[in-house]
Design brief:
Helix 6 crosses helix 7. With about 750 residues, the protein is an alpha+beta fold. The chain is globular and about 80 Å long.
Length: about 750
Amino acid sequence: MMKRYLKGILVALAGLCVGCQSDKKELVDYVNPYIGNISHMLVPTFATIQLPNSMLRVYPARGDYTTELMGGLPVIVTNHRERSAFSISPTQDSDLRPVVPMNWDQETITPYGFDVELMDNTIRAQYAVSHQSALYEITFYDTSKPAYVLVNSQNGRMTVEDMKASGFQSLDRRTKVYIALEMDQKPEEVGIMRDGKITTVNYTEGRNCCVAYKFPAGTGKVQLRYGVSFISEDQASKNLHREQGEVFDRLALEKAGRKEWNEALANIQVEGGTEDEKTVMYTSYYRTFERPVCLSEDGRYFSGYDGQVHEDGGSPFYADDWIWDTYRAVHPLRALIQPEKEEAIVESYLRMAEQNGSYWMPTFPEITADTRRMNSNHGVAMVADALWKGLKVDAKRGFDYCRRAIEEKTLAPWSGTPAGWIDEFYKEKGYIPALREGEEETDPNVHGFEKRQPIAVTLGTAYDEWCLSRIAEFQGDTENQEKYLKLSYNYRNVWNPETKFFHPKDKDGEFLPDFDYRFGGGIGARDAYDENNGWTYRWDVQHNFADLANLMGGRDEMEKNLDRTFAEPMGRGKREFYEQLPDQTGNIGQFTMANEPSLHIPYIYNYAGAPWKTQKRIRQCLRTWFRNDLMGVPGDEDGGGLTSFVVFSSIGFYPVTPGFPVYNIGSPLFSDVKVKLPNGKTFHIVAKNCSDENKYIQSAKLNGKEWNKPWISHEDVMKGATLELVMGNHPNKEWGSGADDVPPSAKQIL
């Protein structure tokens, strides 16, 4: 009788994480990789299996959790959520294909491995991963038939010899990913698969290069293990043997992976809260380790930025990051907890700027190249934030490469070309001009679909220029500090004092007439903003909320405008709203929890003299939009982009302004939080009486002394401070509300 295994699919459907005995749970057992695997609108999360920031990562080869068929078993993801290389197909169908579509059932996924039944429960695949190698254990329940294992490269080369195979898959014209594979037993037949048959040929190159192994009837289990490399097939084999030795031992890999994840997650330890809240928080923390990935292999790495292999000099090389999404909270989280890794990441990006010959700081540093997606040049925020938090980063190179990216490269979104017409206009007028209705585009750098995004680019560049001023200040360069500080006020050039919104302005200096801040700007509002409407970009002045409050007419008016943001109706039915603004999901009024430019908005009440409303909104956002279920993420997660907000906000603080070494205080979900710091100290938050109802701070002490500010410095955190919060179910509207209590903003200029 066929064996059947009742396993973790019930876990996912019930919205519970692996490991149901709460008294036996280790931290990794709180991770539920299925959270968000069904999207609200655009891209779901993927149940990723990897070790923290490791080169080798996989997830099931399917669209989302509801996809019926998988396209073989995964080998390596080469671009976060977008591209994978190779596939492995176990089958007992003698009509062979390079990739065999397989239905799936009884699936359990952990951060370090997975277990799934395939082909109507006739085949079981168990997987364990290391940093640059992995192992599949494949069980064929029906031993009356021969068993096949197919290994396919979509575009490259494969060579097979007896129990081994190797090859590569091309990712672009100069980047290849290599594989070296070994079977644990000798096959009955082995060769290159062509026209559905196994041939005696042992080498093939081109599209769908497929190696086929045939095992005789009676074969119940086959193990294969493989190493990967971006350097060579030989290096892939070395990586495999360095990590796994000469044995096939899935359980040993699982044990090692489990241990590494427990150690990584242990940097944040919480008590109190519910089991679901812990699951959401630790799952979110696990997501922040998805990117970037470490490409160093035995002290060397391949760079897609010049197509060369380099010595890493003891500083590992990292790639695959979307800085527009991750500078806001992922990089600050790493700078706090793993500064040595963050130092290596920043250094990697500086090397990329040198290797690609432009000396422009990257913005979307993927494995193959800097794709320059989205807008602005927020790599500068990473550099500024790291420097002011005491990390060892080359300030001189950082300033130079960031300045070049802002001033020599076009500011046109999704473009890596040199500066053009709109850039000269920005330098002269201090804003990106919007096109009038019917006006033709005149700058060839502007992307046909992504448009100019004039408000988003103006505001984003103003923040970038403030970050440049911070790097200059760090170096004692007063001239550039003052120059870029002045430029950081360019957001004023598109402020409409009548409407109190940032409003697209044409090249003649006139605001576009009859502009709708909810729906103006076309698809994704890109003719004015980017992915989000004017209600979101009203708050996109991360470095200077004090000045934004002044523009609005004072802190009271800022508070009223924040209130209205969370209360303003969508203005259309959901279908019409999301048809135009598909990225702006997770709504609370006009606030969107699903897109990164909104993440800091709930914390702005701290600048408006109403910290109790920050406490209210943070709890509302976490409770409403981040849940322990398959739809528990409200938008595109982007490898830590959203979930880093969850981590910070769940434990009680958030880095509103990367570049300032301070954190805004919110409302922790847990009564006791310990953040283990790299200097051996612990930042301890005690939230007395904390519960779902008791979300409001009544009083606070920092290291035993009364504390009335809704923020805390990075310096105090790193000293191992203890922040004591007394929580209650009604707000203390006085706490942290004084004019002198607000978090810092950019220096004021006339």
